[in-house]
Amino acid sequence: xxxxxxxxxxxxxxxxxxxxxxxxxxxxxxxxxxxxxxxxxxxxxxxxxxxxxxxxxxxxxxxxxxxxxxxxxxxxxxxxxxxxxxxxxxxxxxxxxxxxxxxxxxxxxxxxxxxxxxxxxxxxxxxxxxxxxxxxxxxxxxxxxxxxxxxxxxxxxxxxxxxxxxxxxxxxxxxxxxxxxxxxxxxxxxxxxxxxxxxxxxxxxxxxxxxxxxxxxxxxxxxxxxxxxxxxxxxxxxxxxxxxxxxxxxxx
Length: 252
Hints:
This protein is α/β, with parallel strands linked by helices. The chain has one domain: P-loop containing nucleotide triphosphate hydrolases (Rossmann fold), CATH 3.40.50. 29% of the residues lie in helices and 26% in strands. It is built from 7 helices and 10 strands. It has helices spanning 71-78, 101-111, 127-132, 142-155, 171-183, 201-218, 229-232; strands spanning 29-40, 43-55, 60-64, 86-91, 94-95, 112-115, 189-193, 221-225, 237-242, 245-251. Helix 4 packs across helix 5 and helix 5 (171-183) packs parallel to helix 6. The longest helix is centred in the last third of the chain and has 18 residues, at 201-218. The termini are far apart. Residues 1-5 and 8-24 have low confidence and may be disordered.
């Protein structure tokens, strides 16, 4: 099993200036002329068609669009969970679409924090053990892993729930555990796929408040897929996808 670089203190604040609200020449994420084709028997399904997107470091971007528009596919390409059929995907100037499977897995473990709609917590593990899972791929000692876990759970406001199992937590608390797990390696990117889709409005607002705080106070770059205008309004920029292409961009 390959080892990644040792993480720094998770969710560490940046230099103090406000994060940019749009792409710059020094974009963190660059998606260039990307095509993604899935094959179903003899049929070709063109999910993304010549798509270009730039995301600035420290930006909070919302991806919106109808079901089947390619939002989650694009998120998976940026996170190194899938590869484009053609085109280039760069993150921090790294052509991740050209990495070998082994190097891509190591890159993803170090640079990407994933937040899912349905939390994906292991029910037999406590909150702290669920958060610790990504650190098991590192060379950190057990004591240092525990310190990183404590910091991450503190950032999301769950320092008092570390020994609780998922079944003992509300939906909003489970999602905060999921966010702590995504933060614990101090990733370059937080990728959130419908993070409030399984929550009521009050719990959803708490998660959105947390994501905004991570972006504004800690300088985290966040890309969030959502179909909810209420959720997308928290982002600094909104990109709409339709039939595999960008149809509109607007500030939130």
